[in-house]
Every structure is written in structure tokens, then in C-alpha cells.
Input
Amino acid sequence: MPQHSCVPNVFVDTHDPRFPWVSFFALRAVRAGGELTWNYNYDVGSVPGKVLYCYCGAPTCRGQLL
Ligand SMILES: C[S@@+](CC[C@H](N)C(=O)[O-])C[C@H]1O[C@@H](n2cnc3c(N)ncnc32)[C@H](O)[C@@H]1O
Output
């Protein structure tokens, strides 16, 4: 399962929410063996009492996953 990045190199899409598989599409070229990252798009503050700091390292990192 890919890690979250605030500047991901793939996104997930499906045309049918009942589809049992997800597909990852590259947003830019990824080297063979390179890490795939996607934006989890969690809503920061949506889980009371739960904080997850983001360590993606992007210059524009939001700082928190949750
Ligand atoms: C689905 S798992 C990610 C993949 C998992 N680490 C693995 O090795 O298969 C999701 C969890 O990984 C951690 N994680 C993923 N991306 C992260 C990031 N950018 N910064 C901090 N933790 C992250 C968080 O704890 C998050 O709840």
C-alpha cells in the first residue's frame, strides 16, 4: 500500500465504487523501482482525539494526515 504524500506521484481512480479493485495512475514519470505515493485526502481534525503528523518531506507538506 503506498504511503501518503502531500505531493503524490500517483492518484487512484475507479469509475465504479463497487469495483473490487483500485487502479493507480501516474501523475508524472516514476523510475522503475521508485516509490509510489498518493494523497490519502484524509480530513484533518475529522477524528476527535486523533492526530497523525505527516512525514512525507514535501516542501509544501500540510504537516498532518489527520
Ligand atoms: C495504509 S498504511 C501505509 C502503508 C503502510 N505503512 C505499509 O507499510 O504498508 C497508512 C499508515 O501509514 C502511515 N503513513 C503513511 N504515509 C505517511 C506519511 N506521509 N507520514 C506519516 N505517516 C504516514 C500512517 O500511520 C498511516 O495511518
Observations:
- Strands lie at 3-4, 10-13, 23-26, 37-38.
- The first strand starts at residue 3 and ends at 4.
